[in-house]
Amino acid sequence: MMRIFMASFPYSGHATPPRFGDFEAQRNWMAITLSVPIRLWYKFDLAYWGLDYPPLTAFHSYVCGLYVRLFEPDAMVSPITSRGIETEALKTAMRTTVLFSDLAIFMPAAYALASALYPSDTRKRLTSFAAMALQPLLVAIDHGHFQYNCVSVGLATAAAAVLVRRRHFGNDVLSAILYVAAIFHKHMALYYAPAFFAIMLGDAVRDANGSAKQSILRVARLGVVVILAAAACLGPFALDVSLLRDVIDRLLPFGRGVYEDYVSNFWCATNPVLRWKTYDATIMSKVCAVATVVACIPAGVLSGCKRGTGSDSRAVVPLTLAGTALSFFLFAFQVHEKGVLYAAMPIAALAPDAPLASIGFGAASVLSCRDLLVRDGVFPPAVLAVVVYACAIMYGCKGVCTRVRRAEAVVISACLAMVGATFTLPLVLGAAPLGPRYPYVYAAIDAALYFTFYACAWLYALRLLIQ
């Protein structure tokens, strides 16, 4: 119901020609894949919403386009003549494709992860599932703003569920295939790459019982599985070097600078002082890569130390995913504010064990994307989604949680402070001379505040891995 309610509000770029927004981008991709030869998919009219996601997104767009064409054929005839079509039939058909994708991929994956984390406690299992299903940023971005994050996040969530339940090497193979599919649907799933690598590497070493040869063989087999899965996801693009180069050029936006909009990460928060945007983009991409790798190391090492097959180590997988996702969000190159969704999902999965932290992070994930959601006209229902999310977790944890960790109380207190700042700073700065003179000062302060919160959440995830 929350998804259907969100879908009744405007979408990204509604009635804002000439480029409109993400809704038009997704429609354009469907039209491209239906009417343009596959060799031109990643070359066609790049100035107007050219394809810039991996091939599984293109194939998914093709399937969705076949469905949408049944209801609004004019929107799928040609990428040129169909620009800017915004009929009710098109809106309903495209909203339906997101809902179908959500129900078919993300929902089963979320329940699988909840069942893996809490196999013997029905209430905790249902609370975990409800928290993931109602994660407010996913609902707002996919069903309000308009995207298909549910596919990539769902595939990665399914891969995590397999790892949590892991009993033998075959589980690693299945998890690797699912995760590769997640990356090749949306490359933002790379946020999880160090976590999956560290966990699978640790499992391979443990299974070998001290045999270096067996460890190397297991890792090599997984490497072959990853390569074959990647080739399958690339499809015809894997058979032609020039086509593959076109895909890579579209996926790696080095020319855009270290960041575009005001995003709550280290580079944006410190740019007013350190002026990162004045440096060459190539140099900054290397600096960001080093910083991201260094930030991911603690979570990877800790997961290797804590990982096992007992019930006490089940939380290691989602905590490691959250740790590396936050590392990428805080320090990677060209981060988008929606990227925090990849950290929010594993945190939501642990709602029965850390309810306040899950609620606080869910609220912060929406508030830090406030400018985007306000621009799309979906901020009010997104706030309502936060309330529904919080109520679901509190109801599910009623009578289950007997105490609140001190660190968790700090996280929720910080979140409340962020909420207060989010709604009071515009009033203060707008009334002061500073506001009109420096129109972006509020966005810069906002980015710094939420960077501080996410950095604390990152440290909190590492602390839980240590315990």
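Next protein, fold it too.
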Amino acid sequence: MSQAVAKEIPQEQGEGGSRRSSWGLLVTAGVGGTLVALYAVATPFVTPALRKVCLPFVPATAAQIQNVLKMLENRSGSLVDIGSGDGRIVIAAAKKGFQAVGYELNPWLVWYSRYRAWRDGVHQNTKFHISDLWKVSFSHYTNVVVFGVPQMMPQLEKKLEDELECNARIIACRFPFPCWIPDHTTGEGIDTVWAYDLKRSKGCETKILEITPETES
């Protein structure tokens, strides 16, 4: 074997090793990027399940939406949907003339809700916030819609009773509040909706009578 051929063999081996190293780096980078992307997508869905009270996303049915709107007939003022999901209730209420706001912990659902509101032409009458419901005050809302789970209803009942004014109406979907007695009920099964007028649940009418001065006879 000549010296020229002997010199070419190590050079070719070096080039092959360099190519394999480059491919290895590309594969590593691709796998790493995929894992990061999966983490970014999955985290907003997994994180709520790790919280003290899990509030899973279950889309409202068409019947539930209609039942909620029925409970909002002859009502006015601001509206908030606690756990607004993909924004169906907020958008439906906005189409009926409400200034509607949704609070949702999952950022992907909030961004999708904003897109849907823009697509349906009601983005000027809607707002969607990425927020934990326990860190928000609902004191300035007169209509409250709740898609909750049984574990959270007792604590939420107390929170709303402390924060809302007497003219507020709370509409619970799927699960009723444990202590309040509903003023109105409609629907069947999972589409059942309960409406609570806080002036009765909070005893506001009794308080008003108590502070009314007696007239002189």
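About the second fold: The chain is about 45% helix and 15% strand.
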